[in-house]
Fold this sequence. Notes:
With 348 residues, this protein is α/β, with parallel strands linked by helices. The chain has helices spanning 13-22, 62-66, 81-97, 104-111, 115-126, 130-147, 152-158, 164-175, 179-183, 222-227, 241-252, 268-279, 288-294, 301-309, 336-347; strands at residues 32-35, 40-42, 56-59, 71-72, 190-198, 201-207, 212-217, 232-235, 286-287, 322-323.
Amino acid sequence: MTQSITQTDSIDEDMAWRAVLARDRASDGRFVTGVLSTGIYCRPSCAARHPKRENVRFFADGAGARAIGLRPCLRCRPDDIARDEAGVARAIALIQRSDELPTLEAMAGAAGYAPHHFHRLFKRATGVTPAAYARGVRARRAEGALAGGQSVTEAIYEAGYSVPSRFYAEADKRLGMTPSAWRDGGRGEVIRWTTAQTSMGRILLAATDRGICRLSFEEDDSALSERFPNARIDRDDIALGDLLESAVAAVEQPGRGHGLPLDVRGTAFQEAVWRELSRIPPGETLSYAALAARAGKPGAARAAGTACGANPVAVLIPCHRAQRGDGTLGGYAYGLPIKRELLRREHG
């Protein structure tokens, strides 16, 4: 029997089957699922009833499945994946080169789809709507300009904002502090901090008036001074008492939802990765490659790992739920023993 009619050596069958059972959209395009009993092949995320495991074969692409006489599923249309990805890529390219926010119709036209279908397709591929993605690109341009020392006014217009009010409305939500304060290392901001002992070590909690901006293990206020050298950084055990109590509870029982207010920021991609991390159910994990795909950058597994390392609030954004594609834990900013213990408690 030739290689073309068997599953490829590069496919881990156990991982592939788990992806099928989870209907994992991030695995779409990585392989197709051939069902011998029905004579069709599907995307891993196909919504059809799961076949019996003994009737399933995995193929790198549709060509391998067609070589043994299987036909594409009419429900999930596995052969359309490449076209979908190319369309989303064209829309993203339009967003990145446009000075103004493109309309939905313009983005859909670039992708080659009707607006309603394109909106659904883009959100499925990136985890955010086209408009939200475009706003993230524009805000990232402004943040880069601010970090480069430009005035706020220059940054506003260079990023493509037509009026300053729109920039301030978006930036206040995105940066958590005013744009000029961010550019100046937190100048004018007050960041309060405190510490507590947990069963996994001492934690540092810091917060602005908007929410928690730092939760870490075995750090002191010097870490805050490095991040915000021009902010006023005060220890305040009393004012942060309730937040600290809830943060300790989140560390001790990481599988429970915390509902705590956060004041964190990152690049558009980092924020997309953090959002996807927060969607992973407690006790489960996701590979860096899958995170990258869900965040809108298939193939950027290394960048997804870097985004996990940049997470400013341990446990509250559960970067401990990310691991390598081979099932090993990968890295963790505060050491693998803590990562293992967080996962153990969630499984338990």
